[in-house]
Amino acid sequence: MASEETATPGADAPLDGADLEVVRDATETRDPLPGTGGFAGEIDGNLVRDVLGRRPLFVDADDASAWAFDPRELPAPVSVPAGTAVPVGERPDPGASDRRWTLPDPEPTADDDAALAAVRDAVLARTRALGGDDSTGDVAVAFSGGVDSGVVATGVPDAPCYVAGFEGCHDVAAARAAAAEMDRDLRVVELTHDDIREAVPELVDVLGRTNPMDLSIALPLFLVAERAAADGFARLALGQGADELFGGYAKVEKAPEDPRVAADTVRGARHELLGTLPDQAERDVLAVRAAGIDPVAPLLHDDVVAAALDLPGHLLVDGDRRKVALREVARGVVPDSVRTADKKAVQYGTYVSRELDRLARRAGYKRRMDDHVERYVRALVSDGPVTPPEADS
């Protein structure tokens, strides 16, 4: 995600997300966490993308000298792998030859109080930096009523909070309850089937993806961003990355029994999940920027990442409690009802996944068909040959 210091890069900007000298030093020293919110672009003849891939970067598959932050600017865009530095004009290789940064995997801090204090200091510093000393009121908050977005929202106490969802969905109800507890201005983006039909082609165009999971995650984010941009805001603060960093997933909690992860410890599973961030960040940043606003993810700043990596496993997951450390540092920062709230994945909490499936079935793409929702999506955007529904009857 975007850092709080730097907005969307201009057409001629060679580097997105951080000061050139900071990135130059990190490139020379191989420091993976040099104190930024992520970076990508060209420096000293190399294309670089930070270790967690928090900023998208693309090269053209047929002309490696052509690169862009927006894939729509290239005929055949491919992502530059996270953590790499590759000379402009050479094809990126995710292998060791181009690898410049590797995510640290330190031994856990033995002192729980010290570990929690480090996380608390980093989280509060980065969220409070959203407004800064000279806040211009240019930031809004994507808000689902959980601890992630709740903590982020406290950094900008006067910023409006936005949530999207279909009538009766979990996220809107949770956001309303949390906003009332926190005395925050909540703006609800009530979704309709027309919203989905109109947004899908634009998202497919910018993301280059037609799979329903990515689209169901990106859709509510895009529509919230669109509303915030229309209201005049330049930045959208997000709680993205907290689940990966602080142990928010069931598959981390249940390691090593859960077959979805290869790791045999909670910390190992967390490290494995952090490897999925580049793909997620690419999706989310592109979706928000397509709406005309810049994303900011303070919980993914290097300072927070470094502190979180030092946490012992029981401060990630303890029994059936997840994100233990983040919930502890949020004590007294947000109401307990927000601090302890259960969270649903956005695609389910907003009902977007359910309603996209419903639209597909109404259009004749029944569940008995293979990939019925994706086939519906491809039909919406006329993306290549689509087997007519009647062919499977």
Question: What is the topology, as strand order, of the major beta sheet?
Answer: 10-9-8-11-12
- The level 1 CATH classification of the largest domain is Alpha Beta
Query: Ends: how far apart?
Result: 44 Å
Radius of gyration: 21 Å
Per CATH, what is the topology of the largest domain? Rossmann fold
Largest sheet: 5 strands, parallel
Number of helical elements: 16
Oligomer: single chain
Secondary-structure content class: alpha/beta
Which shape, going by the Cα principal axes?
globular
Domain module count: 3
Compute the average pLDDT.
91
Poorly predicted residue ranges: 1-7
* H and E order: EHEEEEEEHEHEHEHHEHHHHEHEEHHHHH
Strand tally is 14
Identify the CATH homologous superfamily of the largest domain: HUPs
Describe this structure in words.
By secondary structure, the protein is of the alpha/beta class. It folds into three domains: 15-87, no CATH class; 112-349, Rossmann fold, CATH 3.40.50; 362-392, no CATH class. It contains 16 helices and 14 strands. The chain has helices spanning 20-29, 112-128, 147-154, 170-182, 193-207, 212-230, 242-246, 250-253, 266-274, 277-290, 302-309, 324-329, 336-339, 346-349, 352-362, 372-381; strands spanning 15-16, 40-43, 46-49, 58-60, 67-68, 77-79, 85-87, 139-142, 161-165, 186-190, 235-237, 294-296, 317-318, 321-322. The strands form four sheets. The protein has a five-stranded parallel beta sheet with strand order 10-9-8-11-12, sandwiched between helices. The longest helix has 19 residues, at 212-230. It starts with 14 loop residues before the first strand and ends in a 12-residue tail after the last helix. Residues 1-7 have low confidence and may be disordered.
